[in-house]
Amino acid sequence: MTIKEEIHALSENLIENLGRLVAVDSQLGTPLEGMPFGEGPAKVLNEGLKIAEELGFRTVNLDNYCGYAEMGEGEEIVGIAGHLDIVPAGGGWTHDPFQLTREGDFVYGRGVTDDKGPVLEALYAMKLLRDSGMKLNKRVRLIMGCNEETGSRCMEHYNKVEEKLSCGFTPDANFPCIHGEKGHMSMMAYSKNTRIISINGGFVSNAVCDECTAVIPAEDGLKERLELAFSETKLSRYQITEDNGRISIYAKGVPAHASTPTLGVNAAGVTFECLEKAGFEDDFVRFYNTHIGTACDGQGVGLKFEDEYGELTFCNGIVKTQDGIISCTIDIRVPVTLREAEIRKMCEGKLEDENGRIEIKAIGDPLFFPKESPLVEALYKAYADVTGDTKNEPMVIGGGTYAKSLDNIIAFGPEKTGMDYHIHGADEFLLVSDMEEAVQIYMEAIKNLLAI
User: By CB neighbour count within 10 A (0-12 exposed, 13-18 middle, 19+ buried), where does 370 fall?
Assistant: First the structure.
């Protein structure tokens, strides 16, 4: 059989095992003894390691922070790091997010592309190389993490208790390969004075707020003016009702990852924008629209910036009301040429006025490897040799991966440029044909890394 035929023959087994991982709701839970990220992540890790054992790999569980499957011998380690934790399912699904559903070439379920599917693609690539009898001059280790979506503390633990990697990749981004990741910055905005009774929306900070509800005091003619303002937006739907002196607003936007917020529609941002257009006078409405807004570029706080590798992006993920104060999460992806001191100087004096304030919570450094580095060249060659695609080149992304947590690895696949797999959104999917191709690409990638 050709290698493509061998991969295809294993495809159904891979999908069946993917269903076992998808069936576990592995979002961050309440920490328990021996389960630092809660029951779901611990359960999915044990299931992932069990699958690896069934395929004949030796495995290690590192205190339910993460674990790994390994083959080969030697001092050096080629590492592949993927994650089994997920973001919350959210609403809007037409398939059960925790039951794998196949329709032709499409496979649906939370985590199938981010990142449970790619973990298994890499595992089956290892299996095929091992079964081919190829001599391994290094160990090949597939690390399965449990906390990528909410802080990567799993990799902090790995670095404390395990050996460093010689080189490798994380299958948690795009092909052809990622030679740079923007820095990550987080902020929180707070109201000082507001007439808004309540406004709540979003479910994670690293995705566009795609659903929002608000309650405000009723005013003569305000409902009609709001109806007009909302009718001119790009929301997928909205509803405005008035009862007992209050107006209730429901807005449904379009989901998108925080690294690409312009692909979404921020339901909270549109709501604030429409409140102002309709003549609703409010201090925090003014603050939000001037400092955050819907432009996604950070201009309102002096952070609009672009370098040769990409532009700064600015995303409001969660809005909530508690004890009369409105708070908003802000997720920022910072171009690779900017450093913390420059960022702070750019927004100095622009984060507070009489209507609201914004706090900087954290600023993380970017990651960058030159395109000419051996690691980038080895992975890019694997992609190009399998696909024949030399038009698409190594890129810089706004997303953050394990590459920022582990030495000498970069993100490598499996998503194809221009395809929206609905990660962090409803009906997340992968294509079986892409999955099989990714297995072959990862086989070639491991071979190339063994030769470095």
Answer: exposed
Task: Note the pLDDT of residue 418.
Answer: 87
The C-alpha atoms of residue 236 and residue 252 are separated, in whole angstroms, by: 6
Q: Which member of 25, 47, 85, 436 is catalytic?
A: 85
Among 47, 115, 148, 434, which one carries the catalytic annotation? 148
Residue 263, SS3? Answer: helix
Task: Return the pLDDT at 102.
Answer: 97
To the query of whether residue 85 is one of the catalytic residues in this protein, the response is yes
Specify the residue for token string 């400092």. 291
- DSSP for 146-212 reads S-TTTT-HHHHHHHHHSPPPSEEEESSEESS-EEEE-EEEEEEEEESS---SEEEE-S-TTB---EE
**Could you count the other beta carbons within 10 Å of the beta carbon of residue 30?**
9
Q: Can you give the pLDDT at residue 14? A: 98
Which residues of the chain register pLDDT less than 70? none
d(CA 100, CA 87): 16
Given this model, what pLDDT does residue 400 score?
84
Q: How far apart are CA 255 and CA 262, in angstroms?
A: 10
139: helix, coil or strand? strand
Residue 22 · residue 110 · CB < 8 Å = yes
As given in the structure block, the two tokens for residue 247 are 């107006």
Q: Is 5 a catalytic residue?
A: no
Q: How many Å separate Cα 27 from the centre of its chain?
A: 13
Q: How far apart are CA 342 and CA 385, in angstroms?
A: 41
Residue 240 CA to residue 124 CA, distance in Å, equals: 51
Q: Which of 382, 396, 381, 380 is nearest to 439 (CA)?
A: 382
